[in-house]
Transcriptional regulator WhiB (Nocardiopsis flavescens), 87 residues
Amino acid sequence: MNRLYHDSEDWVAQGRCRAYDPEIFFPVSTTGIGRADTERALEVCGGCTVRRECLRWALRAGEADGVWGGTTPEERRYMRRELAPAV
Ligand code: SF4
């Protein structure tokens, strides 16, 4: 992927999640009642060709809710806190 494409948000149109119910990407929780939706969303992300771009966007935007780029909100909080310089 070239840098121009990479820096734009064109990746959104390529997201695998577009073919799925958006609600599974915004479960009420990642455990308990929301666990099944979370696992389903992570499974969809696992086969997404723009996962990396999506995760980068979510980290830069500070997206606090939902599954983005194959990560849960808790995982992104950890990444921002511990791994931000490497992303
Ligand atoms: S990584 Fe997941 S949330 Fe991001 S575009 Fe792909 S399917 Fe959608």
User: Anything to note?
Assistant: Confidence is low (pLDDT under 50) at residues 1-6.
